Amino acid sequence: MASVGLLYVGAVLFVNAMMLLGKVEAKSAAILNLFAGALQVVTPTVIIITAGGDPAAIMGASGIYLFGFTYLYVGIGLLAGLSSTGVGWFSLFVAIAALVYAAHNAFVVRDYPFAVIWVLWSFLWLLFFLVLGLGRAELTRYTGWVTLVEAWLTAVIPAFLLLTGRYTPSATLALILAGICVVAFGGLWMYARLPQEREPSHA
């Protein structure tokens, strides 16, 4: 069930990336945020209710709420025209909590790729905090590109690997993922700092 939800985390991150990059109108993106947010609240609730008090299952499900609340917060805020600062500061909370989940995956679960994925999510939500909470508008373009990359590398592809039974919690996969993202994010930082092409003026 959680792997299905992960697939749609990728979908909403993809649409939100397009919104940050100016390709999707904000209220249009809000609808998918509400759908995905609802899914990411219902899914962990069902897992926890049916876990029979298993601490490992409850711990694994608890982190899903971080995404559900984020997407519901974003969706409602966009539709209602609310300030983004609340979402921004909540994103700081998510960024810090994600590091705890990363450590748990690395040292307790021994799922090294997801330890890296949680670190990547922490970085992404930190960017959301800077852009939405602190108003660092100059980082919007870079955040959009990072969101686009993470939609596929931290959500869609892992979800399909899990759904098809091809996922392996190996350290090698974790190192490959970390290496790809370091190179990609470094390159995107340089690209995002390039002057944007201006649309031709119409007299």
Automatic annotation (TrEMBL):
Cellular component terms per the entry's GO annotation: plasma membrane
Keyword Transferase found: no
Membrane topology term: Multi-pass membrane protein
Transmembrane feature ranges: 6-24, 31-51, 57-80, 87-109, 115-135, 142-165, 171-192
Main location (coarse class): membrane
Subcellular location: Cell membrane
Keywords attached to this entry: Cell membrane, Membrane, Transmembrane, Transmembrane helix, Transport
Gene3D superfamilies per record: 1.25.40.600
Family: Belongs to the AmiS/UreI family.
Protein name stated in the entry: Transporter
